[in-house]
């Protein structure tokens, strides 16, 4: 385009070559104790360029310039995590040290690591970061309630990782950043650099390790950003009960616009936790990690990390519309000509994700904290055996039992080699992130439920009228009607009958939901086949719960299915 004065319109920084780069190269404004911290931590301040809480646009530029990132047609940044496209639970370690060793639930989830090996890996991570031209620092908060929040510092070498944590942590104001001080927890992310397989305690070139004495996390050999998110959750899952005496939960939460009533949703992947907590009549407190405190409920995170597989504007408009400038699309395939993401393409991974600030959800409650105790807890399961009712009212003992069991099922096609429904029991609905013994969380949950007279519901979003392949999945419209009836109080006033082996209380009627759907036995044509599946699933529950039997009250033990 040529303007009347004859000079072609050119972006000013192109006329002044390297204008933006020259500004980027200005030294970061670190003075006093901040500067001293990085020097003492082993960072070569004469060589590296630190970018602290960099603007989103600058992180976009660096990711495109240095990391092969792409801007999608909607303005989101498409980036790639390399070889690892999911978490590496077998490579997660907790340092065995005096201050936390008696609290940690040691085993296959929390694998012991000695302090000396942690120091070796920490130094290896810092040595690697010292070789990078750009090192990114993001200072933010975990926890929306100022009484219980912690200050988190992330130090990494990829703009993608800095933007991810900018979205997932609670972003400080300029004033809060100026007065940030020393962090409570630090993540050293050198994920591009491998761990040494011959170092004691290493099982591969990947290592994700947390030291509760030093309050530090070191990441080597994986660039999957979700490791940082779950690292922060693991720390909160430890600190909230141990230091603050509050209950941390892997759950979503929302609050009624009119009554202000709070509901917590527990559920594993594929049960509908995110979908059902997104309700036009209610405000979203958060979609994944919360703390039930003495004064109310608050979100741990400042953003959402949503699955993108088969995403569409029709099915999940809130998530679809949140994918814009500032969001990160992770490992999503796109059309190279139009830059339009293809959410149905699993060519890179089925675990495609988007990370965006919670403010991008129009129905979000900002700040994400409510000074009110929950009225309802909804435990979600996707039962592929077609056995569990679509809704049951749980006694306090049953609530503890099902919280510890954390049941859902994998269906054929979700993973290679899955040919029939496979039960999955994830204790406290968060087994991969559990830090303390599950009984400790369950006890706190029971105490809070009793104190605040909270109703608890088990809702099955899985199959009815037959197991997977024979019956059909419970229509979402019916499940939403059930959730609405929980919130309106209809279900609390309904008449109930007892459901067989599982001894669950199920409503005899609910307007808008067919009678045969409410009682699974009525929905099955083959009653003998139904009874076989009931006994089969009950046996699976009994076997899975054996792990906790010695640590729970007899009433809780007897609250499960009785064969």
UniProtKB/TrEMBL annotation:
Pathway: Carbohydrate biosynthesis; gluconeogenesis. It comes from the Eukaryota. Its EC number is 4.1.1.49. PROSITE patterns: PEPCK_ATP (PS00532). One of its GO terms (cellular component) is cytosol. The keyword Nucleotide-binding applies. It catalyses: oxaloacetate + ATP = phosphoenolpyruvate + ADP + CO2. InterPro entries: PEP_carboxykinase_ATP, PEP_carboxykinase_C, PEP_carboxykinase_N, PEPCK_ATP_CS. NCBIfam families: pckA, PRK09344.1-2, PRK09344.1-3. Belongs to the phosphoenolpyruvate carboxykinase (ATP) family. This is Phosphoenolpyruvate carboxykinase (ATP).
